[in-house]
Every structure is written in C-alpha cells, then in structure tokens.
C-alpha cells in the first residue's frame, strides 16, 4: 500500500521534474532566439543566413540586387538625398571664398507618387485626426508604452538602462505640466490666440513674425523655380517632409517615413513651430522671436550663375523689414532666430565678386545679432548654431519612435562597417579615396555604396537605410564640407557613426549630441588616415563588444533627439530635434539678456574665430587636441 503510494508519488515527481525541465528548456530556447539578434558573436561572424527576426525575413539583401520590387522603387531623384551635394571647396581655410559649383543632381523624382496609392496616406490621416479627437489618447499611449517595455524585458535586455530608456522617456520641464499634456493641440492653439498666460510657458513663449509671403509661402508656391534639376514641388509636399516612402521591402516601419530632402529643414521647422506649445501672439510676452524666412530655398535659386545682387536681395529685404519692426529694438535682434536649411557656407560670401560663392546673409550686421540655426555651422563664428539634418523618419506618435528603437536594437548587423559616398578626387585634403580603398580591402567586413558607380543605389533611401541597419559602424568622412546628412541617417539606423574630423559633429550639434563623443561614436583622425598608418578595420575590431553594445544603445537613445516629428501632429512625451533646438535658443537668448542687463556690451568676450572652442568647452584658454583641425593659416 505505502509502496504503491510512494511509487505513485515518484511517478508524479518524475513527471513534475520532466515538465519543469521541458518548461525551462523551452523558455531558454525562446530567450536565446530573441536575443540572438543582439548577440555580438553573430555580428562579427560571416552570418549571411536568414535572419531570426521575422520582420527581417522579407528583406532584400543589399548585395544581392535581385528582388524585383527594388527596381520598381521610385528613384528618390535627388542625388542630394544621401550623398551631400556640396559646392564648398577650401572651406576649412578660406571659408566661402573658393566655392565652386558642382554639377547638381539631374534626375528627378518622377516616380515618387506612383507608389503612393498604398493606403498609408489615408490610414495616417485617420490616425492623426483620431489623436486630436480622442480625449483618452494619452492613456492609450501610456498603455502601449507599457507593452513595449514589457517586450524589451522578454527579449532580453543586455543593458540595464535599456528598459529605463523605454519607460521613462525624456520628460523634461516643459512637458510634464499635466495641464498641458492633456490639452489637445486645438485647445492649446486657442489658448495661444487668446493670450491666456500659461504659467508653465513663462520664459518659453515664442512669437512668430508674420513675414510678407515673398519670404516663405511664395517660394513654395513657385516651387518649380526652386531648382532646375530637382522637382522641389514634390519635396515641399507634406509640410516639407516630401512624398511618403513606399515600404515594399520593409526597410522602414509602417508609419512616418518620407523621402525628405536634406535642404527643407526651414520649411519643416516652420511647420513644426506651429505645434509649439508656447506660441504667443503678443510679442512683448515672448522670450524669443522666430523669423520664418526660407533662406536656403531663396538663395538656392541664385547659387549657380546669378550675380551677387540677386543672391543677396532676399536677405537684404528681410533684415530691412526686421529692423523696422518694434520687436527689433527690444534686444537689437538678439532674441531673434531663424533657420537656414543649407550649410553655413552658402550664406557667408566674403567679397562682392560674382565668382564668389553664396549670399552674405550670415555676415549682415543684423544677422550677426541673431541666432541662425543651420545644418552645418561655422566653427569660427558665433551667430550660427548647428541642428540635425532632417532624416526620412517623421513620426507622429511616441510609440512609433519606441517601436523603431526596439527594432534597431534587435537588428542583425552583418557588416562591421559601411560607407555610402563618393570620392572627392579634386579635394586635396579629402580622405574619401583612402576610406573607399580601405573598405574595398576589407571586403568581408565592409559594405560600400559607391555614389560614383552607375548603379545609383546610393541615392535611394531604401538602399542606404538597409545598409546602415545591417552595419555596426558607419563611416562619416567629410565631403565637400564637414558635415553630412548621412551621420543622422546612420544614427536613425542604430549604426555607430565613425567620424574623422571633429567638425563633422562634435563641435556642431552641441544641443543634440552628448558632449562626450566617445559615448556614441568612434573618432579616427583624418590625419592618420591620410598618412596611411591606421587600419579602420583593425581599429574597429579592437573595440570590446561590451563597449560596442553600450555605444549602440546610446546611439539608439539619440534617435528621438535627432528626428523631426511630423509637423501635422505632436509627440506626447518625447522631445524631438525641434524641441531641443528651441530650448537651446531660449537658453542662449536668456544668457545674452542677462549679460546685457549686467552691462556687458557683447555676448562674447573671446576671439570669434575660437567660437568652436568656446561653444564646446566654455573657455578658449586651454590648448586642445583639436586645435590643429581648426587652425586657420
Ligand atoms: C545624379 O544622378 C544621376 C543619375 O540619376 C547621374 O547621372 C548624375 O551624374 C548624378 N549627379 C551627381 C552630381 O552625382
Ligand atoms: C501683451 O503683453 C504685455 C506684457 O505682458 C501686456 O502689458 C499687454 O497688455 C499685452 N498686450 C495685449 C494686446 O494683450
Ligand atoms: C535655371 O536656369 C535658368 C536659365 O539658365 C537660370 O536663369 C536660373 O537661375 C536657373 N535656376 C536655378 C534655380 O538654378
Ligand atoms: C544682376 O542680375 C539681374 C538679373 O539677371 C539683373 O537685372 C541685374 O541688373 C544684375 N545686377 C548687376 C549689378 O549686375
Ligand atoms: C546689434 O546689437 C548691438 C548691441 O548688442 C547694437 O548696438 C547694434 O546696433 C545691433 N545691430 C543692429 C544692426 O541692430
Ligand atoms: C584652396 O585655396 C587656395 C587659395 O585660396 C588655392 O590656391 C587652392 O588651389 C585651393 N584648393 C583647392 C583644392 O581648390
Ligand atoms: C600615425 O602616425 C602618427 C605620427 O606619424 C602618430 O601620431 C599616430 O599615433 C599614428 N597612428 C597609428 C595608429 O599608429
């Protein structure tokens, strides 16, 4: 009898043990399946097999060039989209004095709209209006965010901070006032119009100058005249975001992807400003005055083959208009800011010779008192400030960002490093040829999208984004000028950027990127590459895997900060590149105001030529290892 019971118990016990074993086995199995995408061993192995990521299984491999859908993908037309078309030569030494015009893009984006009837447009529209009407929207968002965070846990967080990044997105002062976040944008707009003082907005009010239409709207209306090579009418659509990108090969996420032109930041920023929470119609309440002039679109019409008076005419009319406004007198323009969506060298013509490049917008006395935000600033000037290039991703909800971040965390990256770009045989100091040669020599580890080759893949966002998503490191050497849009595309793809000149990012995007550049990027001095005594592959290979993981996590956490949200909507808790830029401007203005009150005549007491150093370190006294990079001889 007892034996029987014991026997039974044994059987049960065996069963329980077996079941337990099976259970743990399955659990472990799934766990490893999920985390394999992040497994550093997989990163470096020659793993060309199919991905474990179900989302990835439909992906077209870049190097295969075989799937039909790709060939039908619209040509995004502008060669500018990934490889910057820069017309700046000798920028390092003589600023704008030697800038030559290059043959611009000639292809058009004809096909872009053919692929538009995939239903995304309407779906998106609905979701936007839902958001406005739905009072409980915030709750919904919070709920989905919870799910998102849980998923991160299940899929194996290798970095304790990861989930923290997920659940506690950068909530900062301006947005945690519950009264504001609960308000719908429509209510908020009404608030701004009736000038009800919102206490959470004190010190953050922005007044937008109502410029004559010729400074902005008319330029868009006459979009045909903006470029002889690119159909700017397509790129100015969707509030400056451009046409929606079709997602045949699932390189992008479902919503929020556009064929954005790198030079449309001034339009995007202006529209984004319409969603700013603390707008005022009463300029005497404002802490800063926004000037919505489309400086880049204006000057681009005259960069090639026009005389200087044509190039300067818009800028001169603008500053005259500004100077005559009562708002100017308050701080002599020091509280004014605007966006110039081209690199600073297009606005810094030193002489009045027609052979010289660009306009002189940034050198006008009025402009010297303003803050001009631009995609590349001058290290030697202190009236311009760099903010990120626009990328292709313009989400309208926080959740779209979180989902994209998670996808980039799981992404399998089979290339150690990659490069999209062309050589610059005419630029003496360029290291592009060396970079390309090194990449070609590291055949198995490096993926190259050669913008000189005939395939033209380099100009299609789908190929570039796919390549960056498959790479651990993305090389970002200077081109015709220091910066590249590509650096932001690579951050967006969770690819750790490798810079070769501190002017390419470290002294530029001080509001948006961490001060400690080693946290999110690798620096290999261009001098060493030129000398030929450094191997990129070996340098990158030497970086410990845990360090790579930490850097990538940092890069992915930067994604919300370097993207511009869809201006037709508004993110709930995240600060996008626009929010961070406005915050930066407000801080700058208040510092100047304080100094003016204290009787300091000027907002800076250092040699302007050392602006890069002052902005970076807050002092120009000490010697710095980057001095040689910015020496002006
Ligand atoms: C731009 O791309 C077209 C092909 O679409 C090519 O013929 C042209 O040379 C490219 N322009 C530049 C500046 O690379
Ligand atoms: C604008 O704001 C100022 C200072 O806050 C106030 O004195 C003035 O009455 C306001 N003007 C209007 C038209 O509301
Ligand atoms: C386009 O070409 C015409 C004629 O050559 C020229 O007058 C005009 O300035 C050009 N436009 C742009 C935007 O380059
Ligand atoms: C500059 O070009 C415009 C248009 O081609 C012309 O009307 C104007 O007279 C020129 N100005 C000078 C100073 O040459
Ligand atoms: C620029 O600001 C200074 C004061 O900081 C002022 O004296 C000067 O007149 C301003 N320039 C213009 C063009 O308003
Ligand atoms: C740079 O400028 C100097 C003088 O301004 C000139 O002699 C040199 O040829 C220029 N270099 C290039 C690559 O254009
Ligand atoms: C390359 O050479 C320079 C000096 O010639 C040296 O400072 C630098 O450290 C070298 N780099 C490597 C990786 O050896």
UniProtKB/TrEMBL annotation:
<keyword id="KW-0472">Membrane</keyword>
<keyword id="KW-0328">Glycosyltransferase</keyword>
<comment type="similarity">
    <text>Belongs to the glycosyltransferase 47 family.</text>
</comment>
<dbReference type="GO" id="GO:0016757">
    <property type="term" value="F:glycosyltransferase activity"/>
</dbReference>
<feature type="compositionally biased region" description="Polar residues">
    <location>
        <begin position="171"/>
        <end position="183"/>
    </location>
</feature>
<keyword id="KW-0735">Signal-anchor</keyword>
<dbReference type="GO" id="GO:0000139">
    <property type="term" value="C:Golgi membrane"/>
</dbReference>
<feature type="compositionally biased region" description="Basic and acidic residues">
    <location>
        <begin position="184"/>
        <end position="193"/>
    </location>
</feature>
<feature type="region of interest" description="Disordered">
    <location>
        <begin position="129"/>
        <end position="148"/>
    </location>
</feature>
<keyword id="KW-0808">Transferase</keyword>
<protein>
    <recommendedName>
        <fullName>Exostosin GT47 domain-containing protein</fullName>
    </recommendedName>
</protein>
<keyword id="KW-1133">Transmembrane helix</keyword>
<dbReference type="Pfam" id="PF03016">
    <property type="entry name" value="Exostosin_GT47"/>
</dbReference>
<keyword id="KW-0333">Golgi apparatus</keyword>
<dbReference type="InterPro" id="IPR004263">
    <property type="entry name" value="Exostosin"/>
</dbReference>
<dbReference type="InterPro" id="IPR040911">
    <property type="entry name" value="Exostosin_GT47"/>
</dbReference>
<feature type="region of interest" description="Disordered">
    <location>
        <begin position="153"/>
        <end position="193"/>
    </location>
</feature>
<feature type="domain" description="Exostosin GT47">
    <location>
        <begin position="201"/>
        <end position="539"/>
    </location>
</feature>
<feature type="transmembrane region" description="Helical">
    <location>
        <begin position="12"/>
        <end position="31"/>
    </location>
</feature>
<keyword id="KW-0812">Transmembrane</keyword>
């Amino acid at each position: 009898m007892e034996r029987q019971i014991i026997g039974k118990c044994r059987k049960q016990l065996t069963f329980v043990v077996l079941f337990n074993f099976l259970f743990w086995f399955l659990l472990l199995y799934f766990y490893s399946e999920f985390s394999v995408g992040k497994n550093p061993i997989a990163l470096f192995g020659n793993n060309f097999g199919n991905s474990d990521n179900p989302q990835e299984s439909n992906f077209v491999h870049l190097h295969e060039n075989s799937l039909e859908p790709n060939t039908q993908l619209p040509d995004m037309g502008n060669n500018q989209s990934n490889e910057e078309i820069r017309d700046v030569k000798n920028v390092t030494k003589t600023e704008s004095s030697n800038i030559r015009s290059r043959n611009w893009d000639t292809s058009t984006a004809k096909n872009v709209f053919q692929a538009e009837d995939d239903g995304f447009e309407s779906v998106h529209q609905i979701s936007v209006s839902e958001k406005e009407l739905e009072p409980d929207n915030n709750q919904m968002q919070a709920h989905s965010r919870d799910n998102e965070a849980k998923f991160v846990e299940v899929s194996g967080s290798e970095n304790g901070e990861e989930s923290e990044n997920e659940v506690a997105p950068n909530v900062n002062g301006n947005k945690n006032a519950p009264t504001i976040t609960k308000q719908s944008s429509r209510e908020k707009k009404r608030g701004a119009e009736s000038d009800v003082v919102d206490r959470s907005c004190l010190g953050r009010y922005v007044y937008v100058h109502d410029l004559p239409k010729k400074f902005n709207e008319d330029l868009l209306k006459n979009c045909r005249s903006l470029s002889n090579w690119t159909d700017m009418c397509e790129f100015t659509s969707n509030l400056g975001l451009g046409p929606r990108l079709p997602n045949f090969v699932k390189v992008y996420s479902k919503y929020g992807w556009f064929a954005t032109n790198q030079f449309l930041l001034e339009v995007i920023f202006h529209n984004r400003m319409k969603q700013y929470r603390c707008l005022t119609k009463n300029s005497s309440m404002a802490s800063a005055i926004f000037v919505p002039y489309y400086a880049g679109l204006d000057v681009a019409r005259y960069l090639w083959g026009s005389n200087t008076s044509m190039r300067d005419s818009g800028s001169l009319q603008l500053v005259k208009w500004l100077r005559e406004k009562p708002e100017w007198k308050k701080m002599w323009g020091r509280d004014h800011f605007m966006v110039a969506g081209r690199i600073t060298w297009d606005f810094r013509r030193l002489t009045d010779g027609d052979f010289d490049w660009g306009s002189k917008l940034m050198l006008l006395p009025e402009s010297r008192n303003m803050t001009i935000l631009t995609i590349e600033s001058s290290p030697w000037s202190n009236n311009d400030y760099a903010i990120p290039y626009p990328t292709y991703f313009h989400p309208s909800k926080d959740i779209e960002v979180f989902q994209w971040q998670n996808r980039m965390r799981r992404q399998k990256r089979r290339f150690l490093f990659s490069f999209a770009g062309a050589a610059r045989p005419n630029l003496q100091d360029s290291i592009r040829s060396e970079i390309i040669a090194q990449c070609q020599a590291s055949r198995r580890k490096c993926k190259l999208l050669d913008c000189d080759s005939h395939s033209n893949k380099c100009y299609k966002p789908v190929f570039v984004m796919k390549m960056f998503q498959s790479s651990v490191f993305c090389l970002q050497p200077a081109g015709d000028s220091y910066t590249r849009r590509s650096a932001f595309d690579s951050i967006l793809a969770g690819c750790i950027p490798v810079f070769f000149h501190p002017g390419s990012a470290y002294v530029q995007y001080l509001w948006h990127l961490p001060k400690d550049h080693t946290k999110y990027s690798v620096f290999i001095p261009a001098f060493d590459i030129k000398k030929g005594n450094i191997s990129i592959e070996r340098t990158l290979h030497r970086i410990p895997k845990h360090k790579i993981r930490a850097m990538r996590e940092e890069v992915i956490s930067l994604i919300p900060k370097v993207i511009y949200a869809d201006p037709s909507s508004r993110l709930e808790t995240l600060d996008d590149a626009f929010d961070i830029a406005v915050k930066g401007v407000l801080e700058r203005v208040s510092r100047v105001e304080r100094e003016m009150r204290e009787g300091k005549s000027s907002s800076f007491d250092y040699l302007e030529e050392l602006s890069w150093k002052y902005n970076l370190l807050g002092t120009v006294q000490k010697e710095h290892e980057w001095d040689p990079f910015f020496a002006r001889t």
